């Protein structure tokens, strides 16, 4: 009787949080139950197992969740949004978890250039392609970073044979209410404006983004540049610049290539002629 009384003293009754049914709890339990067996079974039935889409670890999801988790806690930390310094302009941009997962799926490297530099590519290529028609010698263009605190990118255009700088292409915003990105080509010795390249569109139903180049001296529209692609499995993109003055002439093909190593990448624009 004494032992039975001691054992009985170790037990006490609590009420189920859901239905109020009495539950016997031992004083030695560190995590006493708050639900009766029936209510616990009902709650357990609302949870199901799924797997992390990266490492395939088992994770639990609730049937009432509109967006169940697709990554485990470890992968959420590994693929958390990352801040990366743009290799072209030096500004910081954020790579989202979604983009990191897509890069992993496709086998791509994480981007090294910000959205603005990618957006400016077509305008810079268009300006360089138009400059190719002004010189009778091959050009070599390197995109450099200028400034320390407020950085900006400058395309330095040189005579490939002599190394002399014949033009520079800089990006600018024009307009007050709805500013537009513009590529300005300048003659370095006299600071004379050579051309201005702005964004345009081509087509009615399926519109294509274009770069429209205007001669600052003649005040006329001289070139149109579009992005083309080549290859089936491994696609490569290049810019095709067409002269509006002499449409039957050779097209200028411009590619921006990344050279150097991972720690000090350099972007070089190569421009050559192609007959249509």
Please describe the structure with a list of short key phrases separated by commas or semicolons.
alpha+beta; two-stranded antiparallel sheet; 5 helices; ten-stranded antiparallel barrel; 18% helix; single chain; 276 residues
Give the gist of this structure.
The chain is 18% helix and 43% strand.
Can you characterise this structure?
By secondary structure, this protein is an alpha+beta fold. The protein is 18% helix and 43% strand. The strands form four sheets. Strands 7-8-9-10-11-12-13-14-15-16 form a ten-stranded antiparallel β-barrel. A two-stranded antiparallel sheet has the order 1-2. Strands 3-4 form a two-stranded antiparallel sheet.
What average pLDDT do the residues reach?
A: 85
Strand proportion, as a percent range, falls in 35-45%
Helix and strand composition category: alpha+beta
Order of helices and strands: HEEHEEHEEHHEEEEEEEEEE
Radius of gyration: 32 Å
Shape: elongated
Please give the oligomerization state of what you see: single chain
Total of helices: 5
Percent range of helical residues: 10-25%
N-to-C CA distance: 106 Å
What's the total count of β strands?
16
Low-confidence stretches: none
Please summarize the sheet with the most strands: 10 strands, antiparallel, barrel
Strand order of the largest sheet: 7-8-9-10-11-12-13-14-15-16
